[in-house]
């Protein structure tokens, strides 16, 4: 990884190649390979922005976007592929903003909050621009419904309909959160590579110290209260709040993971337990994710890391 990071930072040409070539290849790549290639382009953009500055990173971003849009035009990709392409462009832009904020502020917490704010604004814009977001989302899920309704799928028509209605409710927030997660992964990988080259161990310290500010905590509690009384606020507002909560939930899960890393590092037993934690998060996400969210939210006022460190000392 040090070799790759050194190559990206060697000069503008190397950075452009590292960002644009995977981005162009991703247009026609299978799903998993596409993800890796899109994220790698994000890593290149973030690494340049973190190390050299947002202005240089913006240049890499613009060249990458121009190259993939031109390649998409030449390849005459279909509508779905164009939507995927624009989603990738959004991810890279989000990566660039986050990396620029981090490079300027040297604050992972502020970077996280800005990333969340942009994601929430994206959801709000969708609800403002689209006349009926729920019905639109239901229409987008129609091809999936047709596949699941075929004989042999093992699902009844009633089960398929219930699943589609549930998915349409959170589709907007899920897509934006999924894209934000990709941007965060790219950002974290870039920061870890930067740390390996210039500040060994620095990335771990930053991640373990990640905490959201009190005003974010207060707004989160206000959101929870609003969701409880959403039936009195109207169907559209209730649906919007649910989708916003998906994004906020993602941020709190990641912060919760940072706290878990810090607490386990204090006991010098992080390796085994962290593997178990991530395995449980994947296998029992509906149980573990809320616990991590609660840990991150209460930590804003309780500060578990400081309390635990004092007890050990």
Give a concise summary:
This protein is 85% helix and 0% strand.
Tally of DSSP β-strands = 0
Helix content: over 70%
Secondary structure tally, helices: 15
Helix-strand string:
HHHHHHHHHHHHHHH
Shape, per Cα inertia axes: globular
N-to-C span: 36 Å
β-sheet strand percentage: under 5%
Radius of gyration: 21 Å
Q: Characterize the main sheet.
A: none
The chain-level structural class is mainly alpha
Q: What features would you describe in this structure?
A:
The chain is mainly alpha-helical and 313 residues long. The chain is 85% helix and 0% strand. The protein contains 15 helices and no strands. 32% of the residues are buried. The model has no long low-confidence stretch (mean pLDDT 90).
Topology of helices and strands:
Layout: H1 2-8, H2 12-26, H3 31-51, H4 54-75, H5 79-105, H6 108-129, H7 133-140, H8 142-148, H9 157-198, H10 202-208, H11 214-228, H12 235-266, H13 270-283, H14 285-302, H15 304-312
Helix pairs in contact: 2-3, 2-4, 3-4, 3-5, 3-9, 4-5, 5-6, 5-9, 6-9, 6-12, 7-9, 9-12, 11-12, 12-13, 12-14, 12-15, 13-14
Index terms:
0% strand; mainly alpha; 313 residues
